[in-house]
Amino acid sequence: MTDAERPAIAIHDLCKTYDSGFEALKRINLSIRRGEIFALLGPNGAGKTTLIGIVCGIVRPSSGQVLADGFDVVRDYRQARSKIGLVPQELSTDTFETVWATLRFSRGLFGKPPNPAHLEQVLRDLSLWDKRHSKIMQLSGGMKRRVLIAKALAHEPDILFLDEPTAGVDVELRRDMWQMVAKLRQRGVTIILTTHYIEEAEQMADRIGVINHGELLVVEDKHILMRKLGKKQLLLSLQDALESMPDSLADLPLELDTGGERLIYTFDSQDERTGIAGLLRRLQEQGIAFRDLHSRESSLEDIFVDLVRAQR
Ligand SMILES: Nc1ncnc2c1ncn2[C@@H]1O[C@H](COP(=O)(O)OP(=O)(O)OP(=O)(O)O)[C@@H](O)[C@H]1O
Description:
Elements: E1 9-17, E2 23-32, E3 37-41, H1 48-55, E4 63-68, E5 71-72, H2 77-82, E6 84-87, H3 99-109, H4 116-125, H5 141-153, E7 159-163, H6 171-186, E8 190-194, H7 198-204, E9 207-212, E10 215-221, H8 222-229, E11 231-238, E12 254-257, E13 262-268, H9 276-285, E14 290-297, H10 300-311
Parallel strand pairs: 3-8, 3-9, 6-7, 7-8
Antiparallel strand pairs: 1-2, 1-4, 4-5, 9-10, 11-13, 11-14, 12-13
Adenosine-5'-triphosphate binds near residues 18, 20, 22, 48 and 50.
């Protein structure tokens, strides 16, 4: 396999059972391509942080194998880890050290020779250059988050993990972060992120993985996922509210919404026959009049909620 063909991360039959006996990951198989932005989505407790922890060598797998750029994360821990930058969820950066010293030290930990020009670039990209001599504990929460990212990039990793990068950050920082992600991607860095803001994944990611109860439910190209699992809906605002769905319409994929004031008709966006003409005819026969109608397509969030619900 050439360098270009080798996946950034290759996960084979990965299982994790914590000492408590809790099975956090159940035979995960996943290959992350070089240079892609991969969004890992899942509800609370799904196993995302456990998975990231294993890839980054923080959590020990129970069985299975993970390769980062070809290096086994357990056996070749140092080489594997040097390929990876991790921006963790938690802020554990409250130190007396300055921003600059922290970055220099972090780079040194990975055995990389000093490179002040690289560190300067990272700090400038994150609007932290003016703060380089500040002690980290004196920075604001948003600035500390920027430092976490800078720290993860100090050793020039090829693979970057962002665990809930935008949870609780303000609009400006969120925008800066996404600009930075776009820039890193242009340089060929592989980016894996978890987020509760599914809209962000919808905008940024090339591929989406959905995990729940330690199982990967889907891994798919974002556009294919939206096309395959996306539904379209026709929303009809009724002239007069209905108390309940008339029996005569029970055979249709219809729901009554907002106190009987709206009918929602769901159809498959791939299907040529939408059934809308038939629906409108039947409504007319029933004397159900509407004052407005519009259509909407399911968002990634709708698809995500459906997938997780279906597993339950
Ligand atoms: N050290 C541990 N011992 C026992 N169980 C654990 C441990 N760490 C995590 N778990 C359990 O494993 C499951 C997965 O946790 P994990 O943190 O990986 O989920 P997550 O998808 O990252 O959730 P969140 O979105 O809330 O961060 C949870 O049920 C959690 O309680």
